[in-house]
Amino acid sequence: MEQQLTVNVVTPNGIVYDHHATMVVAKTISGELGILPRHAPIIAPLMIDEVKVRRVDSDTHVDWIAVNGGILEMRDNLVSIVADSAERERDIDVTRAERAKMRAERLIEEAKQREDIDEVRRATVALHRAMNRINVSKHQ
């Protein structure tokens, strides 16, 4: 009876994360999803949010990953996350994320003044991504 998960996070740039875990928690469009070993197979679309991975070596060893949407698949104790972009907490450039946040906030205000709904939506997504990266970086 296998009591661990293998967790892979993959982006177009390659593998971002590949470790063994006892638990994974991710936010799907339907709500928060916790996955333990032997979880039933599932495929779920992810929100822009953090993914929490409790490692097998210690209950206190938790990795955090900023995932910008994507798909999570659980099958045969393998959790695969495919995302456009993802970063581990230790790899996040906080200064760059802060600049992206400020740029997105400025773009939102400018787009609102022009009443450009599409640009407001795009800038809002960029803001959520920047805020997610900033929040995950605080777990270090």
Automatic annotation (TrEMBL):
Annotated GO CC locations: plasma membrane; proton-transporting ATP synthase complex
MF term (GO), any: proton-transporting ATP synthase activity, rotational mechanism
Residue ranges constituting the ATP synthase epsilon subunit C-terminal domain according to the UniProt record: 91-138
Signal peptide: none
Keyword terms: ATP synthesis, Cell membrane, CF(1), Hydrogen ion transport, Ion transport, Membrane, Transport
Ranges that cross the membrane: none
Keyword Nuclease annotated: no
Chief location category: membrane
ATP synthase F1 complex delta/epsilon subunit N-terminal domain span: 5-86
Organism superkingdom: Bacteria
Compartments, record wording: Cell membrane
Pfam families attached to this UniProt entry: ATP-synt_DE (PF00401), ATP-synt_DE_N (PF02823)
Stored SUPFAM superfamilies: Epsilon subunit of F1F0-ATP synthase C-terminal domain, Epsilon subunit of F1F0-ATP synthase N-terminal domain
Subunit details: F-type ATPases have 2 components, CF(1) - the catalytic core - and CF(0) - the membrane proton channel. CF(1) has five subunits: alpha(3), beta(3), gamma(1), delta(1), epsilon(1). CF(0) has three main subunits: a, b and c.
Family: Belongs to the ATPase epsilon chain family.
Role of this protein: Produces ATP from ADP in the presence of a proton gradient across the membrane.
Protein name in UniProt: ATP synthase epsilon chain
Native species: Enterococcus sulfureus ATCC 49903
